[in-house]
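Continuing the series of single-chain predictions for the mutant panel. This is the parent chain; the variants come on the following pages.
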Amino acid sequence: MLTTFNNMVKIEQFPTKKTSVYFCCAFFLFSACTVVSNANDSASDDDATEAVIIHEAEGRVKVGLAKEKPTWDPRGYILFCPCMGRFGNQAEHYVGTLAFAKALDRTLVLAPFRTYQNVGFEDYFLVEPLKQYHRVISMGDFMEYLAPQHWPVGERRGYCYMQVNSESVCDLKAGNPFGPFWDGFHIDFDETLKFELPIYAQDGNLPQNRQIKAAWDERFPVDEHPVLALRGAPAPFPMLEVNRQIQQYFHWAPGIFAEAKGYMGQMFKGDKYVAIHLRTGIDWERACRDVAGIRRYMASPQCHELDKEATNREMCYPSVKHVLEHTRNALQKIGAKHLFIATDKHSYEEEFKKDLKSLKVSVHRLSSDLPMIDLVIMGEADFFIGNCVSSFSSFVKRYRDARNKPSTFWNRALDDPMTSIGEYVAYKRT
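Parent structure:
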C-alpha cells in the first residue's frame, strides 16, 4: 500500500524476508516507488512486514524504516546517569545496570554516554541485541513517546542512594556531569527520595536477585513508582566478574564498525595483526605510583585472583623494555606482520619500529581523538595485549571473551589461563 502525506511517501505491508531490492525515486511533491522482489504473490500473512519512509526536504531524499511507537510497560522503568569517569567506567556501570534492571524486572531506559555532551547509546551500539538479554528502550524514545503521558512534568521523582536519615540533600542535578546530563532531555525533578537498598545484582544468581526485587518492590511498588530515575548507576566499579558475560549483547553500531573496518583494510590489508593498549599519560603514571600491594585497584580484578595476588606496577605502568619484549613475543607467536597501537599519550612508535625492523612488522596508530575506532580495532585483532588496571582495556577484553579471541595483559604470560581465552559464549558476527 502506498500513502502520501505532507511531502512524504509511505509504503506499508510488504514481506521483508524475501524482498531483495527496492528502487525508489522521489520528487518534490510526488514520489513513486517500485518494489522489486522475489517473493511469491501469495506470500503468507505470517511474513514479517515493515514500512519504508521516504522523506523529501529541500531537494534531498532520505529513506528509512518506519518505527513502531513503543507501548507502556506496566512492570516499570529504570533511568540512570552513567556519570562516573570516561567511557570504560561508564561501560562497566552499564553492564551492571543491565543485571540490576533484569533483577527488578523493569525495562531499562538506555541512557546516553557522557563525554563533554550526551552521546546517544544507539550512536555507539545496536539496541536490538540487548533485548536478547532484557527489555530496553532508548532514552530518546522513552522521552518522546512515553514520558509525556506516563512520566509527565510535575510528577517526576528522582532517587538517591544515601542514608535516609542523613542531612545530605538528594539532588540529581548537582554539579557536572549530572546537571547537563538531565538537562539534555529537559528533565527537572519535582520530588526526590533517598534509599538504602541493595543495588549490586549478579547475573544468574536467582535467589539473590529475588531478594533484591522484593526489597525494591516493598519500598517502591511499581504502581506508585513506575519510573525509577537514579542519580547514578546501580552497579559497582570495578564490575562484578559474574556480569562480564553480559558484554556479548553489546554490538557496535554499523557506522562505527564500518569506519573501523575501513581503517583496518587500509592498514592491515587482511593480514594478521596484534593490537596493544598503552596508558602512558602523566595522570596514569601518577595513579600507578603506589599501586603495589593493593588487591583491588580499578579494573585489576579482570586479570588476577584477588585472594592470591596483588596488583603491581608492571601491570599498571609497564616499562618500555617490557612493552617491547611482550609485544615482540606476541607478534612472533601468531606470525603477525602488523602492530596496532592505541594510547592516550606516548605510543613508543619509534622504539617499536626500531625493535621490529628485523621482523618486517609494520607499526600503525590512529589519531588520539578516535577512541571508539580504537576499541573496535583492538576488539577485532588476532591477538590483544591490554592494561590490566584500565577499564578501557577491560571493555576490549570482555568484547573479545564473548567472541573467543585470545588476549593477555602486560606482566602476564601470553598463554596465562586467567587471560588468554575468555570463558564466555563464543559469538560470530553475522
